[in-house]
Amino acid sequence: MTKPRYPGYDVLAKRNTPSWDEATRKVVDKRLATPDRPRFLTRDEWSVAAAFCERILPQREDAAPVPLAALLDAKLLADHGDGFRDADMPYMREAWRRGLAAIEAEAKTRHGGRSFASLSDEDQDRLIGAMADGGLGGEHWGDLDPQKFFKRRVLVDVPGLFYSHPSAWNEIGFGGPASPRGYVRLDGDHRDAWEAAEATPGHEKKAERDNRHVV
User: Fold this and answer.
1) Are residues 199 and 122 in the same domain?
2) One Pfam annotation, family name (predicted)?
3) Sign of the dihedral through C-alpha 82, 85, 89, 93
4) Number of domains, the chain
5) 200 and 167 share a domain?
6) For a disulfide at 119, which of 26, 63, 123, 142, Cβ 3.0-4.6 Å?
7) In sequence order, what DSSP letters do the residues of the chain get, joined into one string?
8) What's the CA angle centered on 27, arms 25 and 28, to 5 degrees?
């Protein structure tokens, strides 16, 4: 397992500091309170979505996980789309419902009736790889193009949801919305005192000490 790039850093330490204003706190608090249960998806869809998202973005075992299934469910429940729809793709909600159903059907067809969530990581990855490479299609998908679903929905929604969460911000040293404090030192390889320090080989302990005081 790779070492964290920003050891000791916790973006939530900024919550009650000049780094975040009240609007930012409300947005982050709401995101952290996303219910870890299906509200738009069915329980079966949730099971597929959770396993699927985990293979799209496997997470560190030593960090608080980003609840991708919950965030996806919340996005679909709120029905906040992209503001447009490709003419050859269903709308977001329908695309995800049909895509998850097709993924589950593919898994059961290829693996003796076993659900996608029960497959090994390797078998899940092979199925996802076939989807990404244009190797799936047929009755399970109808007129939904599997490769387009992967490129236009999965690769848009899942990474976007992952990097909307404070646990992901810790991983990349992001301080959250720059309001009201903002950032001043914008030149390369310079950072403000309230930005996380990236660890360099041999200096991990120093970065960790510095990051425990970043607010």
Assistant:
1) no
2) Gluconate_2-dh3
3) positive
4) 2
5) no
6) 123
7) -PPPSSTT--GGGGTTSTTB-HHHHHHHHHHHT--SS-SSS-HHHHHHHHHHHHHHS---TTSPPP-HHHHHHHHHHHT---S---TTS--HHHHHHHHHHHHHHHHHHHTTT--GGGS-HHHHHHHHHHHHTT---STTTTT--HHHHIIIIIHHHHHHHHTTSHHHHHHHT--SS-BSS-----STT---TTSPPPP-TT-HHHHHHHHTT--
8) 65
Q: Which amino acid is it at 147? A: Q
Helix %, strand %, coil % for the chain, to 5?
A: 50, 0, 50
Cα(85)–Cα(63) distance, integer angstroms: 35
Query: What residue numbers bound the domain in which 191 lies?
Result: 1-19+175-215
153-188: b or e for each residue (b if 16 or more CB lie within 10 Å)?
bbeebbeebbeebbbbbbbebbbbeeeebeeeeeee
Q: Are residues 8 and 25 in the same domain?
A: no
pLDDT in tens, 128-179: 999 999 999 999 999 999 999 999 999 999 999 999 999 999 999 999 887 7
Using alpha carbons, list the distances in angstroms from residue 118 to 105, 122, 194, 208: 13, 11, 44, 38
Q: Which helix (H) or strand (E) holds 46?
A: helix 43-56
| 3-class secondary-structure state, position 102 | helix
